[in-house]
Amino acid sequence: MLAGELYHAGDPEIQADLAATKAWLVRYNASLGLAPADRRGLLVERLAEVGPDAVIRPPFFCDYGFNIALGAGVFLNFNCVILDVVPVRIGDGTQIGPLVQILTADHPRDPEIRRSGLEFGRPITIGRNVWIGGGAMIMPGVAVGDDAIIGAGSVVTRDVAPGATVVGNPARAVVPKAT
Fold it and tell me: Which residues form the Maltose/galactoside acetyltransferase domain (predicted)?
């Protein structure tokens, strides 16, 4: 699965990891009233990396957690979803609005293979100092460059260049107006 190869989600080892994450999510999502240091301790328990001052406001949802790496000062607002069947890396200082979905899970295009229940994942990398507006969706395999902006509600299906602003469905670069 982590290599991006086809896998069966019903595999017992995968199901055990999912169950452990569900139990962790119950604890994390009940932590909104705790001090930030206590919430950070919970994140460190499950996530691959948690940089200094990284914050995820509960409720939060993920598949495994241990495939998620957060840089320093990363902020995820309420109700974010990260389907982390493969690595998700979020760079320092990135701010992510509420209801954002970061989706590494993918499915075969061939209907016979898809019918067999096989899936795969493609990693997502989000650079430093990125701003992702509320309700945006980052699709499997996308890389977002440093200093990019993704407009609220956008569906990002392709890589985003450093410093670019993208909006819409599918997200497209906004061309700055000449002054």
Answer: 1-52
Tell me if residue 8 is catalytic: no
Dihedral (CA of 103, 105, 106, 107) sign: negative
Q: What is the DSSP letter of 48?
A: S
Q: What is the chain's pLDDT, residue by residue, as a tens digit (179 residues)?
A: 888 899 999 999 999 999 999 999 999 999 999 999 999 999 999 999 999 999 999 999 999 999 999 999 999 999 999 999 999 999 999 999 999 999 999 999 999 999 999 999 999 999 999 999 999 999 999 999 999 999 999 999 999 999 999 999 999 999 877 66
Active-site pick, 8, 27, 107, 114 = 107
Domains and CATH numbers, the chain: 7-173 (2.160.10.10)
145 with 160: CB under 8 angstroms?
A: yes
